[in-house]
Amino acid sequence: MKNAFYVHIILPDVFSKQFYDLIPKQREVINRLMEKRIVLSYSLDMDRKNVWAFIEAKNETEVMDILSTFPIIRFIKISIHELAFYDSARVSFPDLIMN
What we know:
- This protein is α+β, with helices and mostly antiparallel strands.
- It has a single domain, classed as Dimeric alpha+beta barrel (Alpha-Beta Plaits, 2-Layer Sandwich).
- It has helices spanning 17-35, 60-67, and strands at residues 3-10, 39-44, 50-57, 77-82.
- A four-stranded antiparallel sheet has the order 2-3-1-4.
């Protein structure tokens, strides 16, 4: 059974060219993980200092394995919190209107 984890990612104070160059690869990894419903949500604050992610995994070790695939991993600080539950608004398609 999989559990939900809240991951707080603290980005570096100064973004180096090396870090900037990894951002497109990071987005690719996140998009792939979101398609597989491993990463349930991923948000960046306006100051570009914090990222919040909700990840579905068996345990904290599996979360770390997932995070280790992030291209930016060596530049960030991470804290992981297991959740009692993760609930979100349903995403649905708008009603079809047949003219």
